Amino acid sequence: xxxxxxxxxxxxxxxxxxxxxxxxxxxxxxxxxxxxxxxxxxxxxxxxxxxxxxxxxxxxxxxxxxxxxxxxxxxxxxxxxxxxxxxxxxxxxxxxxxxxxxxxxxxxxxxxxxxxxxxxxxxxxxxxxxxxxxxxxxxxxxxxxxxxxxxxxxxxxxxxxxxxxxxxxxxxxxxxxxxxxxxxxxxxxxxxxxxxxxxxxxxxxxxxxxxxxxxxxxxxxxxxxxxxxxxxxxxxxxxxxxxxxxxxxxxxxxxxxxxxxxxxxxxxxxxxxxxxxxxxxxxxxxxxxxxxxxxx
Length: 296
Description:
By secondary structure, the protein is α+β, with helices and mostly antiparallel strands. The protein has six helices and 19 strands.
């Protein structure tokens, strides 16, 4: 549904390694001044500001500062969006993604569209779409950690050359033994990322489900499976091998073989800004060549 709240503040989250980000920063700040919307920048942006940059800006110094913002403008690619989502966590601040690179699926607004879209946001003429997040609880004898992923969790063999053996349970029921290079646990949002390259299905973001896709399974009978979001998934390692664990492809851990991993739906969603004319299938076609035939 349309969100009629007109923003008074917003945050800028960006990939400071991209030259295009720095080209756009000042025009965005000028737009904010014109619309009387107060901008805030991250400490990373502050630390990399050019010496000639004279604007006196509000800084996001802590996670609590996100609560002062009406939305986050993410400038970069999908990786930038994913890092912004992890930083926002359960605070409910909607994210609008601007795509600066060659391929982006989460950051669906292009630079050419940016100010037209921002003007709609300034008038409250936008939508927010809830995106499911996964939660992973990792426990062993020495440490307990909780991670959250908007796209996916990946368990793989890491530096080992051996096949990884994993037993998967869903709500306490045995699903299967997997002999593979690893497993991808994806949200509907993440179904178009690593899970897709592993042969998993495309799942529309509004659905509430978890996609489990094996990586290079050593049998033809194991295929990706989609389970409802009320399932608690537990992974055990009967061969007692060390495994690698990745969060959205950006956070990596090496886990002891006796580690207990439980994956389930997170208690919170990430909110993403969308618009009345947004078209998921059009995005699939433009970003991934959905439905296109090869050149003759």
